[in-house]
């Protein structure tokens, strides 16, 4: 014989404390604009140019230390200008 009524109802969820909450779920979502402003585009272009210059300077410094002189000859335009001068002298 049963001692009492069966507990058929589901238990209520436990109380959620402050520490149990996920702060990232409650954080505001940040939506970046799809269209980039003109100023941001120009800054991005300048950043790309500066990275190129920095890369070139680094390559020259490393090649000077190692001894790869073919990298020290100059830019493509400088090399072409030197070739034209050499052809004109002949």
3D architecture notes:
The chain is an all-alpha fold and 90 residues long. The chain is 52% helix and 0% strand. It has a domain at 38-89. The chain has helices at 23-26, 38-66, 76-89.
Summarize the structure.
By secondary structure, this protein is an all-alpha fold.
Helices and strands in order:
Elements: H1 23-26, H2 38-66, H3 76-89
What are the salient characteristics of this protein?
90 residues, mainly alpha
Q: Which regions contain 5 or more consecutive residues with pLDDT less than 50?
A: none
SS field, number of helical segments: 3
Portion of residues in beta strands equals under 5%
N-C termini distance: 119 Å
Class of secondary structure makeup: mainly alpha
Determine the oligomeric state from the structure: single chain
Helix content: 40-55%
How is the main sheet built? none
Radius of gyration based on Cα positions: 34 Å
Principal-axes shape call? rod-shaped
Mean pLDDT: 76
The ordered string of helix (H) and strand (E) elements is HHH
| Number of E-state strands | 0
Region (Disordered): 1-28
InterPro entries: UPF0390 (IPR019034)
Pfam family, one: DUF2462
Biased composition (Basic residues): 7-28
